[in-house]
Amino acid sequence: MSINPFDMHPKNIDDTFLDFKELYPQSYDKDATDPYTKTRIILMNGTEFEAVWFSHQFSRHCNNNDIRRELASIRYIEQQQQKRVSNLKPINETILETTIGYEQLAVDLTSILAKEEKDPCVKKALDFALLEDFDHLYRYANLLEMEHHIYADKLVGKYTEIMPGRPTIAEHRYPADNIKPFINSKTADPLTKLNVNIITAAEQQTMNYYMNVSCFYTSDIGRRLYQEIGLVEEEHVTQYGGLIDTNCTWLENLLMHEYTECYLYYSCFETECDPYIKKIWEQQFEQEVAHLHKAVEMLKIYESKECQQVIPNGQFPKLLSLGSNIDYVRKILETVRLTGKLEDYVPISSLPDDDIFFRYQNNIIKTVEDVPSHDIIEKYISKEGQDYRFQVEPHPIEALQNRNVDNTTIGRTKSE
Length: 416
What we know:
Blueprint: H1 20-23, H2 35-60, H3 65-86, H4 95-116, H5 120-148, H6 152-155, H7 190-213, H8 220-241, H9 250-271, H10 275-303, H11 326-332, E1 338-341, E2 344-347, H12 356-364, H13 372-384
Helix pairs in contact: 2-3, 2-4, 2-7, 2-9, 3-10, 4-5, 4-7, 5-8, 5-13, 7-8, 7-9, 8-13, 9-10
């Protein structure tokens, strides 16, 4: 059942602060919890970080202390929500095990959004980065088995395949080629506006996680892999964040942030299978409804605008339901030879020999052996005779079927 949060009677914000007993939750059992419960937690952790980050930036660019005081109250509750959600992760879940969840979320969330997306530019962006996050899952999974003898297919519940996508080595593009056209929020489909906000927050959380945990990883090869993939996540956040309409005011953006959080918490509540965590989603949805109504009030007071000017129909569109997307990913793998070029995506074979993509690659990659994502697979193959994969059928791309060698040319060189 879909609802309209603008029609709900909100709680008073001051009545929604959590005490310290409520704030620290019971963590999930990493061996028994459904993979999509884990990915929902990662998603909402990232969504709350985005809310906090945005609010701080708004406050630092605002000269009205009445607005800043309202933001401070909302932001503190967002901080409580983030800390509650993040501590659902158990103490005994390692950095790398959590990383598998991050990449499973990236693959399945991106697939789900792309399948429903009506804006062709946004859909192309989602499909393009999907194959890169898919490859990251494969690289981290090989590291996990090599160092900890844990099979990642068990962690993802066999809902998500683990095999090469666009090789990570091919993902390093000149930064200017990650800037894409931004949407027009006045004419965009409501789901498109939600999608660009959702994927930006999710990929930003992944980027932040890798930025911070790289130095805490316990092997040099692992630290180097987090470094490399963290730089690709910077590319993804640049791409996705650039899709958001740059013409919106701070208060219009605040309203959209709060609406997005309401939509996601309600989606999580409707699809959650863990009763304890389902209750948390419900409570935090109610908190977000209060934040949403405060944003409506502020927009009217300070910009003389009605919320319908930003979100014409507040009724939630189709709710987000995380699940398996094996067939969709296999279909999109047909585009593995694309690369980013200014506002579009083009076959690598179409670039001139002196294109900045090749010059940039030659500048940062002196030898293929220096690249951590490649080194991981080569070491695993050397040890085990073939790479680690979970696939329901042979890889749909012939050039990526060979498990005895890591392909470092597809999507990267014109000759492939």
